[in-house]
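Hey, can you fold this one?
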Amino acid sequence: MSKCTAPVRGHRTASAAAECPACGGRYNGYSNYRNSSRHYSGAPSYSLNNSGSKLSSSRPSWSPASSSVVYTPAETLALRPFRHSVENRPLSSDRRDVFLCHAWDDRKNAATELHDHLESKGVSVWFSEKDVALGTSLLREIDKGLAKSRVGIVLVTPALLNRLKGEGIADKELSALLARDLLIPIVHNTSYEDLREVSPLLGSRSGLSTVEDSMETVAIKLSELVSL
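Sure. Predicted structure:
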């Protein structure tokens, strides 16, 4: 049986759907693909028009009417439980909007980029590069940061996948966040299929991805999510 390429390539264009060995033969204006993709929950799905362009979806209730970003139905569904958590955990003087979990190797590039975009949107972020002082216990500071954060995000990169295989600090952060059911994956420069091979539990969570959106757009969506 031919294997569907949706987990890796997403069928986000007409050519990708047509070239899929499992779906290409029955490809017809994307209607068949949209029906079959409902059974795939690992990666974000997209509604496409006949030219392969992404269609605008209904705006989630927490996104202001003036917002320029577009959410897919899958993103709205994935983020809704986190919105409920934000609404039930008001931001106090010592609480952060977001706990940013990342690989040590990403601290100077992708993680800093995401952190800076979030801060520029008014989101308070727990970020080890600025919140863990020299000489303090990293694990203890992580525990405190997790307890004071409304939601957690994990920047899923090739570097993080390598770290998870070694069961280091990032693995401990993820375990705590997964236990609290407050973790949003942000997939960057990798795929959900690669993530599931390393962490099936984390890979089963839907979140956001930089495949279609820029890092700044991802930050805008997160800022809207945590704004009250």
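Residues 6-37 form one domain. Let me know if you want another pass with a different chain boundary.
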